[in-house]
Every structure is written in C-alpha cells, then in structure tokens.
Specification:
By secondary structure, this protein is an all-alpha fold. It folds into 2 domains: about 120 residues, Orthogonal Bundle (AGR_C_984p-like); about 120 residues, Orthogonal Bundle (AGR_C_984p-like), CATH 1.10.3700. The chain has 18 helices and no strands. The radius of gyration is 21 Å and the shape is globular.
C-alpha cells in the first residue's frame, strides 16, 4: 500500500480526472441522472422525504448519509429552517445539519428550494466528492480524512467547530498526537487544549492548511504503519519496523518540526 502522503498527492493533482471516472461509474451515473431529472419536480418537504432515492442522494451529498434513516428528524429540521435562532438546525452541535437545512431551504424559499444551486449542481458535485472520499477511505482512512479536512477547513471559524465534527477532530488529534481520551474531558478543557495546538484562524490560510495536511499524513502513517508502507531495506533489517516508522516518515516529521517544506 502506498503512503498516505503519496496517495493524497495523486488524488489532489489529478482531481478532475479522478472525479470524471467516478461520474462515469454506472451506479453513480444512474443515481445522479435520476436526481437531476427529479429534484426540481419536488416542491415540499413531504415530497422530498418521501422520495427515498432523492432523499438519500441529498443526504450523502451533504455528509449525512448515516442519518438517512432519521426521516422524522430531518423533516422537522427542514420545516423549521434556519432563520430562527431557536430552530433545530441552529441548536444542533453538528454543523452539517445547518448546512443541509440551508441547502434545501423549504422554510425560506418554499417550492423554489429545489431549484437553488445548493440543491442541484452543488449537491451533485458534493455527492461526487463524497463518493471519492468514501472510496479512498476503503483503502486508507487517512486519505479520506485528509481530503475531508482540505474541503472543510476554511469553513471552520471556531474551536467548537472542530469539536463538533468527529472527522475534523480525528484529523487534529492525529496531527498533534492528542489522545482520543481527551474527548472525554470537560468541554472547556477540550477547547483550551486544542487552542494550545491550533489557531483556527490558520485554517483560512491555504498554505497553513497544506502544511497541516503534510503533518497529518506523516503522523497517520506512523500510527498505522505496516510492512507495506516501510522502506524495503528497513524491513530486511527489521529495525525501524519495530518502531513503526520508516526513514521517509521520520524525515517528513523532522522537516515539519523544523518548519521545513
């Protein structure tokens, strides 16, 4: 298996070609064609929820595929909308629900909600991206997390935004070697602890985001090292295999610690 860094570079330098291949996948194409042909004919929340194929496509597009069974919750979410501070979307800790309610804004736009870009072209592009990330995750969850972080980083404006997103939190914990057990601590402590390692303002800087991804990729491979990701010479001598780290990984981490490129 290639390293997380190598696979991430392959994907990000050939994104257009990779997405084009995914779009041509028979299952993806069939579901996308159906979604495109149907979404604008749906005019109410009830119709949206009732059409299982459209609903599941939309949920996957916005990262909520695992909650597709919770139709009653999503129905309430969409009927309340996002305009009121007291609405469900604004009270839920996971920001994906609010993003979904904005994308399919039946409460604010009525029947026109499904003609908005967020419900049509943007939803399709998000579905393709989600499919790409999920496919990569089957072989290497680290690549999936790196791609997800790259996509979501600029939308994070508070430390709580990281804590509320399990994938982003996993990325940050891995990057800085923060134990998962830290998530069981008092919330205020978690916020202060994360802020020791990361200033969320840095997530608005693409160069700093790329540097974080470089470090994450190296740390992921350190924590999930197998003989397949080791240098063949090191495997022969079995020295660094016991330490779980190849020379390439050690050099990568050393450069990051020293502020190198």
């Amino acid at each position: 298996m290639v390293s997380t860094s190598t696979r991430y570079q392959i994907i990000t330098t050939n994104t257009t070609r990779t997405k084009a291949l995914i779009e041509k996948d028979p299952v993806v194409k069939r579901e996308t064609d159906y979604y495109n042909a149907t979404i604008k004919t749906i005019k109410t929340v009830d119709e949206f929820i009732k059409n299982d194929r459209v609903f599941k496509y939309a949920m996957k597009a916005y990262g909520l595929e695992d909650m597709a069974y919770g139709k009653a919750l999503i129905k309430k979410l969409l009927k309340e909308g996002v305009s009121s501070p007291q609405s469900m979307a604004n009270k839920m800790s996971n920001p994906l629900y609010k993003e979904f309610a904005r994308a399919f804004d039946f409460a604010g736009k009525g029947a026109a909600a499904t003609s908005a870009a967020s419900a049509t072209t943007e939803a399709v592009q998000k579905y393709i991206q989600q499919t790409l990330e999920q496919q990569e995750g089957k072989d290497n969850q680290g690549v999936q997390l790196a791609l997800y972080f790259k996509r979501k980083a600029s939308s994070v404006t508070t430390t709580m935004g990281i804590l509320a997103d399990r994938a982003l939190l996993k990325f940050v914990q891995t990057t800085f070697g923060i134990p998962e057990a830290a998530s069981r601590a008092d919330l205020d402590f978690q916020v202060r602890n994360l802020e020791k390692f990361l200033n969320v303002k840095d997530l608005q800087d693409p160069k700093r985001v790329d540097k974080l991804i470089q470090r994450f990729n190296a740390m992921w491979d350190v924590n999930n090292a197998t003989s397949a990701t080791m240098s063949p010479m090191l495997t022969l001598f079995n020295q660094s295999t016991e330490q779980g780290m190849s020379i390439d990984l050690m050099m990568s981490i050393a450069k990051l610690r020293l502020g190198g490129s």
